[in-house]
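Hey, I was hoping to borrow your eyes for a little while. There's a protein on my desk that I can't quite get my head around. The fold is given in discrete form, as structure tokens running alongside the sequence. I'd be grateful if you could look everything over and explain what you see. Here's the protein in full, and shout if anything looks odd to you:
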Amino acid sequence: MSDAKKDIKFSLKAMVNKKKGKVLFVEVDGTFADVLISFLTLPLGTIVKILKKHCGDTPPQFGSLTTLYTGLANLDDVHFCSEGAKSILVHPRSSNDAARKKLKLDVSDSPPLEYFNCPKKCTFSDRVKSISMYHDPYHCSYCYSSPMEREKAENETQTVTCDDDGVFMKAASSFLITDDLHIMPNAGLLQVASFIGNADMDEAEMMDVTFESYQVMELLMFSLISMNPLSVVILNRKPEYKKGTGFTADASDSTSKTMNLKLIVQKSMNKLLYAEAEQDFIDFLFSFLIIPLGGVESLLSRNSHVEAIDNLYKSTSDLIHDKYFKYPEVRNRLMKPCIPHGYISENHIFPLAEVKPIYPGQGNWRPSTKFPRGQGNYLIGPRTYKITDDLTVTPFSVVCMLSSLNEKKIPVSDVEEVELQIGLNEGLSILKASLTSKCALTDALLAQILNRKRKRQEVLLVSIHSIMIIIH
């Protein structure tokens, strides 16, 4: 985070129950509400990246996404179809990047967008240029002869300043935010009391709070892993955790693409050792990192089991009237954000929509060879990969796996393969588990398989018992 950003401060009024050591709610203006709601526009990979930078050597474990991101970053470049394919996964952009630049504080630290043009001014007509969002060092994807050059647009060279009228919310608005991140207009006492409880309200005391930029980063971090992020940040309370009780997604789509996945299980312990998959499934896993939090909430029907973010999403959708938003279309951009142009691999199975990029002037957008779309995927195949329970991805090696089994004293005779078809439902279950669990594959897939297996065994035993009774 830049030095200028480190000096940014917000003044809040907090109502606190000091006996319980709990923040009941804070009163904020539209500027702070803008920053909080902007969390929904951050891609999962961006969140992991900025929290690793914020926390240094001890980054928080954000479910299995931290290890998924680390495995991706450590994967050798030769596995990717292009330099750009890896880059957009390690440094994912959001379709709301330009809007976030106008916030008083943009926590994403995203670099400005760059546009590239063919030096031969390739066109489809006198008015339409050939343009790319990514520099292609080899050739223009239209004329196939000239390296693309950076287009120096005026609005890219200017410093973006804070929008005093607000970005997502109108700056003049006032909002209340509860400890677990319900956000609502500051328009009625009984509404907030319904979320907090009258007893706590009767014991409330006011506290003036200065919220600095590092505390906004702390709020983002604890909103992902605790149910009381404001109390943790303002009062230094211990985080309160709540683990989800199930990961089965509700979506159903018989036309969804499916992929093969092998779970390698230790039979005697019913324990997942690792999984094996081709590059199409790894493409799918890596695509998690380009999805904004708001998109995750939309895919998971507002039930991600990241409770504070669930509350932020639901209240932005249900508790705030249209008149508080800067523009009528803002709510939909937050609730169902699009993915930037060229980011989505052909191996994705989620219903994700791409946004057409906006360029200052007319242009025809060509698929650079550095796009995943240019090659159709992120990774080169055919290749088999190993996936651990926490979604760490590495190239598969029979020699390494056999050595690992021998070190753990697990005989090959105690190992079995469980083959699965991963479609939309299974994919959503893995995404959901990855947000909160360090055992994403077990929680999303293996636990369900073992439950079904136990039920079949119970039915079989009952049937055998009934037959024995009849015989006797």
Notes: The CA atoms of residues 338 and 353 lie 5 Å apart.
